[in-house]
Design goal:
Helices cover 44% and strands 17% of the residues. It is of the alpha/beta class. It binds nicotinamide-adenine-dinucleotide (NAD).
């Protein structure tokens, strides 16, 4: 075993001891820890904003809005409900089991590993940490290597608030994550790409660790002929260009009814113009592409699409020095283009038109199941048709991204876009084992035991007919 492997191993061993102590921890103690995280964030809002700005020039306000504010909401929601979530729940006693009682006790799974991405590096690392602490687990966090400043800050924060045997951060890249995954964690919570998600699932299988996979993919946005086009345009543009398109639930591509295509595109263009008339410097509130690799990948998508007949109708301008990429709309798109095959994860919006909704749902159903699907429509029939005919992590009608912060509604993907949920009670359950405890008070079950006399056989038949 290498020195690194040895040190990870002894770290987990210390967390295994701590997990036994946490197994019986009370809601009050867990809430105290959550409150300490909240206070730390309140005291360090500016420093968090600095870290994200240094990592990819994310504007301070956008960091507050999309990374800090949702943390406050989530902490408040957990604190308000944790006692109830931890409380054992029972079901009514089936007739056949008369004389018994039952309860389901949420117990912490034990030792959790959380691996997080770079695109919302603070929120997407810390949100599952909140769930793990609420559930009473220990945690090792492996944040993204691409947002070094934020990852180092999270490390400092956890070091100030927790002892290493309860919550700790190990920074590094893929090698670090791979090494950590060799250890027998009880639960692995991964947020990232479907490609790496598959590797995480394989690695977890070796220890039979349960997994939550919050993945990505191509989330469609559909605008029908009845939609409020001005409102749809603003929300689509906001959703696509927030974080420079580097959002897992961003609209990946747009399907618009032929009748309203020109009007919708005009509305999007006029909204973008209003944001900034100077595309060279665009808004200082507009963040940059995370690194050179992703920058050239996205620029490559534009070039390749153009060479195959796509038309850039807005944007397209890029500047390598600071990885700036203008919000870009592309038309004349065909499903065979690479831009329609891989998750874009950048500020490009390919636009396809349709005349019949069936074409749209068949296209979606031919591809991997998306994390999110957005519908802009006033027609209830169309809304229901798309919702029922397709499978996706979530559906949002006439809005964007609210599913991620909508307390009480589970957030997650399906198959290629993920498995399991994050946040709220479902997030708490991902880190908990709902352990059934059934107690016999005076159950007559031995009446069915051998020897199988005539009476036992008759009784069994009666029970099968009326009690089972
Ligand atoms: P990524 O999969 O490249 O990396 C995510 C994390 O996995 C990083 O910490 C990385 O170091 C680690 N990693 C790399 N190789 C690994 C391996 N072999 N085993 C274990 N861990 C490994 O993803 P990314 O580029 O950081 O993030 C973008 C992707 O994440 C997009 O696909 C996006 O849609 C998705 N995403 C999903 C959600 C969601 O909530 N569903 C949220 C944000 C991002």
């Amino acid at each position: 075993m290498t020195d690194t492997a040895n040190s990870y191993n002894s770290l987990l061993k210390s967390q295994q001891v701590k997990a036994l102590e946490l197994r019986t921890s009370k809601a009050k103690e867990r809430i105290k820890k959550l409150k300490s995280i909240k206070s730390w964030i309140e005291d360090n809002e500016e420093i968090i904003c600095d870290a994200l700005y240094s990592d990819f020039k994310k504007s301070r306000h956008e960091t507050y809005l999309s990374e800090i504010m949702p943390m406050y909401g989530e902490i408040r929601y957990i604190i308000k409900n944790l006692k109830n979530w931890m409380y054992p729940k029972s079901v009514s006693v089936p007739l056949f089991f008369i004389g018994t009682s039952n309860k389901r006790i949420p117990q912490p799974k034990g030792n959790a590993l959380i691996i997080s991405p770079w695109n919302y590096p603070f929120l997407l690392t810390m949100k599952p940490v909140l769930s793990a602490i609420a559930a009473g687990c220990t945690v090792i966090i492996k944040p993204s290597e691409l947002t070094e400043n934020t990852s180092e800050l999270i490390k400092k924060m956890m070091h100030e608030l927790f002892t290493e045997d309860e919550v700790t951060v190990i920074t590094g890249g893929a090698d670090t994550a791979i090494e950590l995954q060799k250890l027998p964690f009880n639960h692995v919570f991964f947020t990232g790409s479907p490609k790496v998600g598959k590797l995480v699932m394989i690695a977890a299988a070796k220890n039979l660790a349960s997994v939550t996979l919050e993945l990505g993919g191509k989330s469609p946005t559909i605008v029908d002929e009845t939609a409020n086009l001005k409102e749809a345009a603003i929300k689509i543009a906001y959703g696509k260009f927030l974080n420079a398109g580097q959002t897992c639930i961003a609209p990946d591509y747009l399907f618009v009814h032929t009748k309203v295509k020109d009007k919708l595109l005009e509305e999007i263009q006029s909204y973008l113009k209003k944001l900034n008339d100077d595309p060279e410097n665009y808004s200082k509130d507009y963040c940059r592409i995370i690194n050179k690799g992703h920058f050239s990948r996205i620029v490559g998508l534009i070039k390749e699409a153009e060479s195959e007949g796509a038309q850039v109708i807005t944007g397209g301008h890029s500047r390598e020095t600071d990885a700036f990429l203008e919000p870009t709309l592309l038309t004349q798109i065909t499903p065979e283009m690479r831009i329609m095959k891989e998750e874009i994860f950048g500020p490009l919006l390919p636009v396809l038109e349709y005349t019949n909704l069936q074409e749209v749902t068949s296209f979606i159903n031919k591809n991997e199941k998306p994390l999110a699907l957005y519908i802009y429509s006033k027609n209830r029939g169309n809304q229901d048709f798309i919702t029922k005919e397709t499978s996706s992590g979530s559906v949002v009608i006439n809005d964007f991204a609210i599913q991620f912060i909508y307390h009480g509604i589970p957030f997650g993907g399906i198959n290629n876009s993920g498995t399991g949920y994050s946040g709220g009670e479902e997030g708490f359950k991902e880190f908990s084992h709902l352990k059934p405890v059934i107690k016999n008070h005076f159950s007559p079950s031995p009446l069915f035991y051998p020897p199988y006399t005539k009476f036992v056989k008759k009784l069994t038949r009666f029970a099968a007919k009326y009690l089972a």
